[in-house]
Design a protein that fits this description.
By secondary structure, the protein is mainly beta. The chain is built from 2 helices and 10 strands; from the N terminus they run βββββαββββαβ. It is globular, with a radius of gyration of 16 Å. The protein starts with 8 loop residues before the first strand and ends with a strand.
């Protein structure tokens, strides 16, 4: 069965393992990701410093062999929808997302084990130059171990409901 990508946004992200947090982070949000077991679905809750909360359901479909290019469809959730869907069994991971606006936009996720993963979104263009101000240890764009779902399974916890 062919899958329609009519409402999807194509994400072309490069991911880099960093040795240190770059200078100049401008904002930080706490993100709770819940990867629903046996599906391509992710529940995401984003908490900003101002107290605002955004919740959404994502469906991600790979467009190639690896994780570097995906079609992502999002649906924003109200409190009742969030409560219902978070009862599904999922691998849960919390991370701190730091935003750097310098030579474009770069986000750096700080995980519970201390690892730092920078994401650079190439949009519709060809891959750009890796910003030289990133203290890159390794390009992990095509490494399954550094995808969100794999990190949740390795660093997070299995949960039928948040606790």
């Amino acid at each position: 069965m062919a899958m329609s990508l009519k409402y999807a946004v194509v994400e072309r992200e490069r991911r880099y393992l960093l040795a240190s947090m770059p200078a100049g982070t401008q904002e930080m949000r706490v993100i709770l990701d819940r990867y629903v077991v046996g599906t391509r679905l992710r529940l995401r809750e984003v908490r900003s410093r101002d107290g605002s909360v955004l919740r959404k359901l994502n469906h991600k479909v790979r467009l190639g062999d690896g994780p570097a290019e995906v079609a992502s469809t999002s649906c924003y959730l109200d409190d009742d929808e969030w409560t219902l869907l978070q009862s599904l069994p999922a691998y849960e991971l919390t991370k701190h997302r730091h935003t750097v606006r310098r030579d474009g936009l770069v986000v750096v996720d700080q995980h519970v084990d201390g690892s730092l993963i920078a994401e650079v979104d190439d949009g519709d263009g060809p891959p750009g130059v890796v910003p030289n101000w990133l203290d890159v240890v390794e390009d992990v764009s095509d490494d399954e171990a550094w995808t969100g779902a794999a990190l949740a399974a390795r660093l997070g916890r299995m949960s039928a409901a948040p606790g």
